[in-house]
Structures are given as C-alpha cells and as structure tokens.
Amino acid sequence: MNWKKRMKQWKIWLNNLRLFQKITITFLLTALLIYAVMAVTLQFAFRIYDRQLYEKSLAELDFFAQQVNERLAQIEELTVSIATGNEVQNQLSWMQDMDYLSREYNYAKQQLMTILQNRIFSQEVIRNVIYTDQKQVTFTAGVYTGEIEPPVMDVLLQQFHEKRGGYVWFSPTEDYPYLISGRDVLEVKNATLDYLGSLIFSSDIAKLIERQTKDLEAEHSTLLVYSEQGMIYQEAEISGLDLPDMDQEKGWKIINYQGERTFLCYEKSKETGWMYVNFFPYSEIYGQVLRLRYMILVILATVFAGAVFALRRISGAITRPLEQLTESMKVVEQGDFKGAKKLLPPNPSMDETGRLAREFDTMLTQIDCLIHENYEKQLLLKDTKYKMLQSQINPHFLYNTLNSLNWMVKAGNAADASRMIVELGSLLRGVLSKKVYVTAEEELDMLESYIAIQQYRYKNRAKFTIEKDGKMEAYFVPKMILQPLVENAISYGVDRSLNLCEVFVRAEEKGDVLLFTVHDQGPGMLPQELERVRNGTCVPKGHGIGLQNIRERLALISKDALLTVDSVPGEGTTVEIQIPRLNKETEDLAGMDV
Q1: Among the three residues 323, 348, 364, which one is the final residue of a domain in this structure?
Q2: Secondary-structure breakdown of the chain: helix, strand, coil percentages, each rounded to the nearest 5
Q3: Which of these, 76, 84, 109, 112, lies nearest to 187 by C-alpha position?
C-alpha cells in the first residue's frame, strides 16, 4: 500500500506544477532517453564499423598471402618447364654417354650452364640454379648465394629421388635465407624416365614479398613472414613483439608495442605453412574513428544541455500568454469569434502577451481572408521550391569539377581542361536558363555536357552511353529532368561498384509518347529499398534532387506522365519516364521565362 500512496503523492505533485515546469521535466526525461539511446546506438554502430575494418585488414592480408602463393606456384611451373624442356632434355641425354673428365663433357656442361642461365635470366626472384648428378658433377648457373649445408643437400636430393620428378621445396633459414626448391630431371623424350640429374633453385623470397607489399593500404605497417624454421621476411627490426604461434590459423588483436597501441592481424597460409603478420599503429586507421566518436558524444551532450536551458526560457515565454488567453480560446472552440473578441483586453500591452492578444484578435476578425491567403502562399511556396530545385546544381559536383580542372591545368593537360570548361559552360548555360520547359533535344544536350564532365572524373570506373531514336525536337519536357537520374545512377551505381559500371541512357519516340530510360549496372537495391523509392519515402542523398520531386513536376504537365523504378540486386537499377506529347498550351510555356 505504501507504493500506491507514494504514486498518488507524485501524481498530485506533478499536477500542481506550473505548465512550463511540466514541459521542462517532460523534455528533460525525453531528451535523456534519446541521448542514452543515441549514445548506445552510436557505440554499437562504431563497434560494427571497427569490426568491419578489422575484417578488411585481415582480408587484405589474406589477399597478400594468396599473391605470394601465386608467385611461388609460378616458380614451381618454371622448374617443370626447365626440367621437361627440349633443350635441357636433349643436352642431358647427350651428356649421359660422355666421360665427365673429357673435354667434350666440359664443353657440354658449359652449354648446359648457358641454357640454364638463359632460362632464369628474366626471373629476378630466382638467384641461381644448381645442377648435380650421380657422377658427382655439380655446377651453379646464376648468382652465387652461398653454400647449402651438406646435410640439407643430402635430405633434399633424397626427397627428389623419392618423389621421382616431383617438386620439393624447403623454407628459408637463418643459415641459408633463400627458398630451396627443385626436382629430379627424368628423361621424358623417350618415356624411359631415366635419371638425368637434379636441378636445385635458390629463390629470393624476401624480394618477392617486398614487391607485393605495395598492395597493403596502411602506410606505416610492418610485415613479417616466418615459418617453423625461422624468419623469412621482415620490413624492420623488431624487439619485444609477441608473435602468434605457428599452431594458430588467423585472427587479429590490439596490443601495446613500444608504448603505442598497435593493431596486429595474422594468417597462416595453408599452402606453405608460413605465418603472415602485419601490424601498424592503431591510430593510423582507427584513431580518426575514435576522435569522431568522442566528438559526436560531446556534441550531443552540448546540444542536450543547451536545449534544456533554452527550453526553460522558451517555456516561460510561451505559457504565460497562453494562460491569459485560455478563456478566450475556449470560446473560440465553440465557434463564437465575436464573444472571444470581447474577452480580449481592449488596450493590450506592448509585451509578449499583448502582442499575442493583438495577433489573436487579428486572426478572429480576418480568419476567412487569412485562410484564403494562406492557401495562395502555400501554392507560391510550392512553386518557388519547384523552381529552386529545377535549377539546382549539386555544389559537390561543381567543387569536384573545378578541382579536376585545377589538377588538369597543373599537369599541363590543357586540351582536356579546355574541353571540360566548354562542357561546364554549356551545362551552366542550360541550367541557369529561365525556361520552364525545353525540348528533349536540349535536355539531352545538357545531359551530354554533364556526362562528359563526369567521364573525366571517373575515367575507367564508369562507361556512359546515350542513345536516341525519334524526333527529339518535337517534344517538350521539364528542364533538368534527366540529370538527377544520371546523378543517382553515379551515386548509387558507379560509386558503389568495384568494377566498371555502365550507365545507359536511351530516349525513344513511341507514337505520341516519349520514353526515357536510365539504367546502371550497379549493385542494385534490395526489395525493401526499392519499395521506399517507389512510395516516395526514400530521402535523397546530399544535395541531390529526389525522385519524388521529379514525379511532382511530371504531374504538373500531364496526368499521363509516369515515372517507374525497377531494380534487381547484383544487376542494376532502371528508371523509366513516359511523357506524352504536350498540348499547345503547355508547349507555349517552353518559350516563357520563369
């Protein structure tokens, strides 16, 4: 029973509060709840974003390891090509019947050495190739890289013989920092598979890996590659770094290295058994995200505190005149405007309450006139908004265009810069024109100027195609009705595609109907996204003109004008506009200024 009594007391206390206090408390509780939800949501969103960045770093390391494995596979293919090639096969077959102490054998050996040197000459990673056979003849073709320890050589040759021409390789070690690989050469010309000798290749894996490091995005990253036999490659000297054990597969972690927070990701290659480790300062990639996170939280807290302070001031200013006008408003609710006017003070003061009373009195005496005037203002406001959106140019597009021009001039590319300036001038001339309607031919000309500028910016990332079929000059369309569709195709198609994305625009005459089609080969939209676009609930990105605005402009010219949107995930998005031939009254508007 005590809690019921306390609830009743709280209810009485709340009812007895002043109006502005109730508003302040309600807003405070609501704002606190919103702030808490936003803070938790932001934290959750940033955690998801962080994890995506972590996974991206790990995927990048996996891609790097696959590239190294591909290069190792190329080395293996080269050993097959050399061991089974006609030159080596013929030379070794010829040498088998010679006395290895004879002058003829020495000459043949020199020829073989020349053949091997020529085969590995273009392979910068392969430093040399060693030939040995059962006659205990051994020589090296290529760059001298030191001696292979006899025990290692014995094990290597034994595995060569066991695999009967199969490929064998040993990881680099501290004693011999090169990849040792090779195979027995068996006579394949006559299919006898007789032993002709062994080829041992020494490959500079450190150089191979170093060439691939340019694909790693982090500028200050450090790459390590090691195996159970020891370190294979390291970009810099390290000390005190706890490296992952060889029994681990892949993963990432944040560590403290040399007094700095460091992100480390690692992956073990299934093909070679090598461990790839990449680490870099955490702040290099994720520091900005952390600063942004804290900045947003601080801004939310500041806005919350400022809103609370402002609401207390506003609540008092609003509620005081409302209390004095309450009785007059009750009479107005009954429809008695004259009776409500009698309740107002005859000589209102000059403060806020007096001003509100005078405005209220004016509303009562002129309500019919005001309703009509308000209706006209709404139409004017809609028309003004339409004209503003009709002639709007995306500032971001203009900034990027001018920036591209700047770099073209600096690079001495005067021809392209001149062409872009001409296209920009043509576009601006059409956009800034005061015409409400233009011919379809003029609209396509403005679109070609816009696409020409975008083609310079996106180069090989996008391909634009414009086709037209019919008498484009015979149709009038609302100005700037195609450019927003192409801009959407770039924003949601080209910018979100990893490969070349084609944007296709077609204008064709079908009877008395003009059909525009804008299709992009981007990622497309999910069904729920497509539904929001179709029902007009999708908000346009940045400074763009939304599809809903285009629908409204089409509705102003004809009830038969249609805009349809279709999209298939992974195949792209298609927007179609059908515009009937405009009547004489609408065509006359084409020559009028806005």
Answers
A1: 364
A2: 55, 20, 25
A3: 84
Distance CA 390, CA 397 (A): 16
One-letter amino acid at 516 equals: F
* Same domain for 91 and 64: yes
Together in a domain, 161 and 191: yes
Where is 565: in which H helix or E strand?
strand 562-568
Q: Are residues 287 and 299 in the same domain?
A: yes
User: What burial letters (b/e) apply to 35-62, b meaning 16+ CB within 10 Å?
Assistant: eeeeeeeeeeebeeebeeebeebbebbe
Q: What stretch of H or E contains 534? A: helix 527-535
- In single-letter form, the type of residue at position 508 comes to E
Amino acid at 413: N
Question: Could you tell me if 262 and 283 are in contact, meaning their C-beta atoms sit under 8 angstroms apart?
Answer: no
Which stretches of 235-383 are assigned E, i.e. beta strand? 250-257, 260-268, 275-281
pTM value is 0.45
Domain harbouring 432, CATH code: 3.30.565.10
Sign of the torsion formed by the C-alpha atoms of 278, 279, 282 and 283? negative
3-state secondary structure 452-504: HHHHHHHHHHEEEEEEEECCHHHCEEECCCCHHHHHHHHHHHHCCCCCCEEEE
Report the SS3 class of residue 134.
coil
Closest C-alpha among 583, 547, 541, 545 to residue 562: 547
Distance CA 293, CA 183 (A): 57
Those residues of the chain that have pLDDT short of 50 are 368, 371-372, 377, 380-381, 384, 388-391, 542-544, 584-585, 587, 589-592, 594
- Nearest 5°: the CA angle 532, 533, 534 is 90
Distances 366 to 299, 331, 357, 370, 372 between C-alpha atoms, Å: 45, 17, 14, 6, 10
**6 lies in some domain:** no
What does DSSP assign to residue 593?
Answer: B
Q: How far apart are the first and last CA of the chain?
A: 73
List the one residue out of 187, 198, 227 whose CA is nearest residue 65: 227
- Name every residue whose Cβ is closer than 8 Å to that of residue 174 and which is 6 or more positions away in sequence: 230, 231
Q: How many domains does the chain have?
A: 3
Q: Are residues 295 and 392 in the same domain?
A: no
Q: Is residue 189 part of a domain?
A: yes
Which of 235, 324, 232, 311 shows the shortest CA–CA distance to 273?
232
Residue 37 within any structural domain of the chain: yes
Closest CA to 109 of 81, 82, 80, 138: 138
How far apart CA 81 and CA 188 sit, in angstroms, is 12
Distance CA(64)–CA(188), nearest Å, equals: 36
Question: Are both 322 and 345 inside the same structural domain?
Answer: no
Sign of the dihedral defined by the CA atoms of residues 395, 398, 402, 404, in that order: positive
Q: Indicate if 327 and 351 belong to the same structural domain.
A: no
What per-residue confidence (pLDDT) applies to 381?
A: 45
> Do 31 and 141 fall within a single domain?
yes
Encoding tokens for residue 582?
Answer: 């405009």
How far apart (Å, rounded) are the C-alpha atoms in residues 154 and 166? 16
Nearest Cα to Cα of residue 483 among 443, 425, 515: 443
169 membership: H or E segment, kind and range: strand 168-170
In a domain, 380, yes or no: no
User: By residue range, what is the domain housing residue 342?
Assistant: 337-364
| pLDDT recorded at residue 517 | 94
